């Protein structure tokens, strides 16, 4: 038994030695972690978005939103030295009428940070998972109703609402998925410090910015319906514009 204990201690010592800098003769330092709360606020043209409130489109049509939800993957905080510290592997951002903010909780190293980074969508290894295997409170659970068993696995985003055209009311819906629509490396500049007790950081998601970009401005009356594969160009425009909607 003593031989096994000595062997285990030796292995741990080797692992510790190799995990520390060669110039550090002491034991491996324990880097403390503190809680971080990342809040995402939903806006429309710089103001808090309200579901069922009538807005006017670029084409002068009245419309309103009824639904807005999406996935983020690989959510990290970027330190001043460029290293990245994981906040969460994946998060389900589901805005509801009662609250236009969603929070993501994590624990990261103390220190100075310069940005929050994330990917839009569900990354490939997670996209291949069966949502029925997750507990109901997990972001990828089947209870989130964000999965296409018949087509593209996880739905990356859903935005729904109605248009008013003259005396007619029409629906719009844009539901995006497929690995080709995954958009990595979205960066939002934020200067903050994580110390004892942790910190709170907030970023904005603006649907007006998403719908109105120089390369593509949405006309939700003329072309506002996509389940991805039935109107792939619209889904591509949506995800491309999505990358500019955070600040």
Layout: helices, strands, pairs:
Layout: H1 2-19, E1 33-44, E2 47-48, E3 55-56, E4 62-79, E5 84-95, E6 101-109, E7 111-120, H2 124-127, E8 147-148, E9 153-165, E10 168-177, E11 183-194, E12 199-206, H3 207-211, E13 212-213, E14 216-217, E15 225-226, H4 232-242
Parallel strand pairs: 1-12, 10-15
Antiparallel strand pairs: 1-2, 1-6, 3-4, 4-5, 4-7, 4-9, 7-11, 8-9, 9-10, 13-14
Rg, please?
Answer: 22 Å
- Morphology call: globular
What is the number of helices? 4
Determine the structural class based on helices, strands and strand pairing.
Answer: alpha+beta
Low-pLDDT runs of 5+ residues are 1-19
Q: Helices and strands, in N-to-C order? A: HEEEEEEEHEEEEEHEEEH
- Tell me the major beta sheet: 9 strands, mixed
Describe the structure.
The protein has helices at 2-19, 124-127, 207-211, 232-242; strands at residues 33-44, 47-48, 55-56, 62-79, 84-95, 101-109, 111-120, 147-148, 153-165, 168-177, 183-194, 199-206, 212-213, 216-217, 225-226. By secondary structure, it is an alpha+beta fold. It folds into two domains: 1-30; 34-242, no CATH class. The strands form three sheets. Strands 3, 4, 5, 7, 8, 9, 10, 11 and 15 form a nine-stranded mixed β-sheet that branches. Strands 1, 2, 6 and 12 form a four-stranded mixed β-sheet that branches. Strands 13-14 form a two-stranded antiparallel sheet. A hairpin with a 2-residue loop joins β13 (212-213) and β14 (216-217).
